[in-house]
Amino acid sequence: MKSSIRLATLLVAFSTTTLAAGKPPAAPIPRATPESVGLSSARLQRLDERMEASIRDGHAAGGVVVIARHGRLAYEKAYGESDIGSHQPMRTDQYFRLYSMTKPITAVALLTLLEQGKFQLTDPLAKYVPEFRDVKVYAGEDADGKPIYAAPERPITIEDVFRHTAGFVYGVFGNTGVDKAYRAAEIDYDHPASLADMTQRIAKMPLVANPGTKWVYSFSADVQAYLVEHFSGMPFDAYVRKAILEPLGMHDTVFGVPEERAARFATLYSPNPQGGIVPTPNGANYAHFTNRPFGGVSLSGTPEDYLRFAQMLLDGGTFDGQRILSRKTVELMSADHLGSVATRWPGYGFGLGVGVLKDPAAYGQLGSAGQYGWSGYATTTVIIDPKESLVAMYFEQVLPEDYALLADWTNLVYQAIAD
User: Fold this and answer.
1) What domain range is 301 assigned to?
2) Computed from CA positions of residues 363, 332, 225, 341, in that sequence, does the dihedral angle turn out positive or negative?
3) Is residue 268 a contact partner of residue 378, using CB atoms and an 8 Å limit?
4) Among candidate residues 217, 232, 247, the one where a domain is terminated
5) What is the pLDDT of residues 252-267, one digit of tens each?
6) Model pLDDT, residue 22
7) Domain boundary at 198, 232, 266, which?
8) d(Cα 213, Cα 418) in Å, to the nearest integer?
9) pLDDT in tens, 203-253
10) How many domains does one find in the chain?
11) What is the pLDDT of residues 58-97, one digit of tens each?
12) CATH number of the CATH domain containing 129
């Protein structure tokens, strides 16, 4: 497979160089007034007030809100500054580090290969990555404090890898023996040299639970990305460009922080212990994803570019005449695949690479059963709501994720629906 990946890299590099001089411009997204798509301009002012208060109170430098309904962009507004030090105003075409909003794109890339008959969701992961054949489940510690391992009750399936039920972890959200093992093995986004390296390291780790029994947020999307390479014979980033970004006209979506586009990025901030926010040292090293792409994080882009991707999903897998997925595949992707297995949020399930709202009342926010999407560590988020024919997105660059702001933002988007 390595030789085919090298050949594919050369071919993609050649085609990219050839087109760089004049990529066809992406067709503009149709625009509309809020009222023409059933939104209230007066109620959207409440959204403005909340965003402006966050900036005024020193919780954010600036942000961008995008709301599309019935396939038309009805609300797009930039707030505050992209860089506090230089007082650069935030722009609607600013570049943002997407962090975990990379995950839905990774999932779509792997689903295009499902549609090509490369695998089944019920296939054991070890069928394609044999190193997972002998994986064990962490079962606690004995009287001497030594870990106890047991054989899994069933193999990890590819569906488990999509829905975070494989038994993998991130190693930073808990302190179990498995979390400690991940940290000791330097399984993170700094040390592994490639997706293959990360996947091989994960295969040597114990599972935190039997496959299919527990939802644990994890490096699953990176294993998905490795499977993209396995099934396509191409580097992950090259396949994403070929299968998703180029067909959708997402010319402003990139991996990492390419030097030639760095000036268009909003500055990344973190909370200051003395109050307010300060620039995150070295931009949290996000630039190293430019040449080291991963499936769980690594993409960057503009709000309008991500809208093209989200609208494609809302429209059943097609956008601007380009079909990325079948309508039935999108339906499967956006269905809850957890059943009785709970996430950390009541009323919230998980599909194939996206979170799925099952019960707005149990979740405690305005919304629709069946809406789906995901958010990113630097406070970015997308909601795709088939019942309301709605895509809503918010982008800023403050980490860790401001859950309180996003909760308010979600309610303020939905309260603006007038009919």
Assistant:
1) 44-101+235-415
2) positive
3) yes
4) 232
5) 999 999 999 999 999 9
6) 53
7) 232
8) 41
9) 999 999 999 999 999 999 999 999 999 999 999 999 999 999 999 999 999
10) 2
11) 999 999 999 999 999 999 999 999 999 999 999 999 999 9
12) 1.20.58
Q: What value does the mean pLDDT of the chain take?
A: 94
Q: How many CB atoms lie within 10 A of CB 45?
A: 12
Indicate whether 121 belongs to any domain. yes
Tell whether 49 is covered by a domain. Answer: yes
Per DSSP, 163 falls in state H
| Spatial strand order in the sheet of 299-301 | 96-97, 299-301, 254-255
Verify that 356 and 375 share a domain, yes or no. yes
The sign of the torsion formed by the CA atoms of 411, 416, 417, 419 equals positive
Lowest mean pLDDT among 6-20, 119-133, 389-403: 6-20
Distance CA 94, CA 152 (A): 46
Nearest CA to 380 out of 241, 265, 293 is that of 265
Give me the percent of the chain exceeding a pLDDT of 70: 94
Range with lowest mean pLDDT among 140-144, 250-254, 317-321: 140-144
The candidate with the shortest Cα–Cα distance to 409, out of 397, 394, 387, 389, is 394
Q: Quick check: is 26 in a domain?
A: no
Same domain, 161 and 240: no
Q: How far apart are CA 114 and CA 109, in angstroms?
A: 9
- Rounded CA separation 91/224 (Å): 33
Q: How far is CA 172 from CA 157, 169, 183, 337, in A?
A: 24, 8, 8, 25
Q: What is the pTM of this model?
A: 0.93
For residues 248-273, one letter each, b for 16 or more C-beta atoms within 10 angstroms of the residue's C-beta and e for the rest, the string is bbbbbbbbbbeeeeeebbbbbbbbee
Q: What angle do CA 316, 44, 330 make, to 5 degrees?
A: 10
Pairing of strands 72-83, 299-301: unpaired
For 183, list phi and psi in degrees, rounded to 5: -65, -40
